[in-house]
Fold this sequence. Notes:
Layout lengths: L1 E4 L2 E4 L6 H7 L6 E2 L6 E2 L12 E4 L2 E5 L10 E3 L1 E2 L9
Amino acid sequence: MTFRFGDREIAVEPGQSIGAALLAAGYRSWRTTRHDGAPRGIFCGIGVCFDCLVTVNGRPNQRACVTEAHPGDRVEPQEGTGHAGLAC
Ligand code: FES
C-alpha cells in the first residue's frame, strides 16, 4: 500500500506512521521552520517536539511520527505554520 508525498508514491506497512514511512523512503526533513526556513523532520519520534509536522489530506500541522498512514493519503511538506497568510 502507498500514500502520496508530493509527486511521489511512498510504500507503507500496515500500522506504520507517516514519519516512519518517510524515513524508510530516504527523507530526513519535510518541514521548514516559520522564522528561518530551517529544515526539520523526526526529532523526538514520540509526538512531543512537533518538528515533524506535515499536511495530511489538506489538514496542516499533523505530527508525522504519530499519525498512521492510510492508503491514498495525500501528504505534503509543510512550510512555516502551514496556514497560508499567517506570518508569525
Ligand atoms: S518527531 Fe517530535 S513530534 Fe514528531
